[in-house]
Amino acid sequence: MIHQALQSALSVGNKQDYSLKRFDTPQTGDMVSFEVRKITRSFAYGVIDYYGKQYQAYIHIGQIADTYINDINEFLSEGERIQTVILEFDQKYAKWSVSRKFEKASKEVV
To answer: Cα torsion at 52, 61, 68, 104 (round to 10°)?
Structure first.
């Protein structure tokens, strides 16, 4: 009798596993692959891959390494793919801002 009540209670409603649900667009903190397409003095522009979709993104020179960078070309080259973390969506430029400093951020959480 108790087993039937439990079974009927569990079968009522829409069952969804929300822990596996992903969003349609990238979210702050997501790890993504960033492909460098263009390098300027202070920025690298490119695209991020998010579940098969590509979005425009950029990385600022200050988000590439913990050390001072005189020449961004010493750290990145066009066509290179790097792992990054999403910082925010920049409304002004309609691009995602990403960072390569995710190792430091993950250690601070622990």
So the answer is: -40
Q: What's the burial of 96, exposed, middle or buried (CB within 10 Å: 0-12/13-18/19+)?
A: buried
- pLDDT tens column, 33-92: 999 999 999 999 999 999 889 999 999 999 999 999 999 999 999 999 999 999 999 999
- Report the chain's C-alpha Rg in angstroms: 20
* Secondary structure in 3-state letters for the chain: CHHHHHHHHHHCCCCCCHHHCCCCCCCCCCEEEEEEEEECCCEEEEEEEECCEEEEEEEEHHHCCCCCCCCHHHCCCCCCEEEEEEEEEECCCCEEEEECCHHHHHHHHC
Predicted TM-score of the model (pTM): 0.71
